[in-house]
């Protein structure tokens, strides 16, 4: 069996976690810091920790994202984020991105 493929249970869990992350992110935007101070030690740990020999699992992946990546990211969908003029990544956009990522199409053919 291909170790990169998820089992039915893992896929269900990943889907549930993704929906929870997207929902929590959008609901929390109004209270989020637009540019939170970065946790430099935690970010450095991401760059210096070797890749594991085995996968960490669905829950650990989402836990690490919620504990490390999200708190150290600019809230570009926040109503007060005015650094660029682009569409915010909220509403249906994250779901559409997830669909596009699932297909991983090469668009230059």
What does this structure look like?
By secondary structure, this protein is mainly α. It has one domain (8-103). 49% of the residues lie in helices and 0% in strands. It has 4 helices and no strands. The chain has helices at 8-28, 40-48, 58-69, 93-103. α1 (8-28) runs parallel beside α3 (58-69). The protein is globular. It starts with 7 loop residues before the first helix and ends in a 6-residue tail after the last helix. The model has no long low-confidence stretch (mean pLDDT 85).
Question: What key phrases describe this protein's structure?
Answer:
109 residues; mainly alpha; 4 helices; 49% helix; globular
**Shape annotation:** globular
Cα-based radius of gyration, to the nearest Å:
16 Å
What are the segments in which pLDDT stays under 50 over at least 5 consecutive residues? none
Average pLDDT reading: 85
Looking at the chains present, what oligomeric state does this protein adopt?
Answer: single chain
Helix content: 40-55%
Largest sheet: none
Distance between the termini: 31 Å
Structural class: mainly alpha
**Annotation, overall tally of beta strands:** 0
**Order of helices and strands, N to C?**
HHHH
- The total of helices stands at 4
Number of domains: 1
How much β-strand is present in the residues? under 5%
Short description:
The chain has 109 residues and is mostly helical. The protein has 4 helices and no strands.
């Amino acid at each position: 069996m291909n170790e990169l493929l998820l089992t039915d249970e893992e896929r269900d869990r990943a889907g549930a976690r993704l929906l929870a992350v997207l929902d929590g992110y959008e609901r929390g935007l109004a209270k989020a810091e637009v540019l939170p101070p970065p946790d430099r030690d935690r970010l450095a740990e991401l760059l210096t920790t070797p890749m594991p020999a085995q996968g960490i699992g669905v829950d650990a992946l989402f836990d690490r994202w919620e504990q490390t990546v999200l708190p150290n990211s600019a809230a570009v969908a926040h109503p007060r984020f005015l650094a660029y003029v682009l569409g915010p990544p909220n509403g249906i956009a994250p779901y559409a991105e997830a669909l596009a990522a699932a297909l991983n199409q090469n668009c230059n053919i």
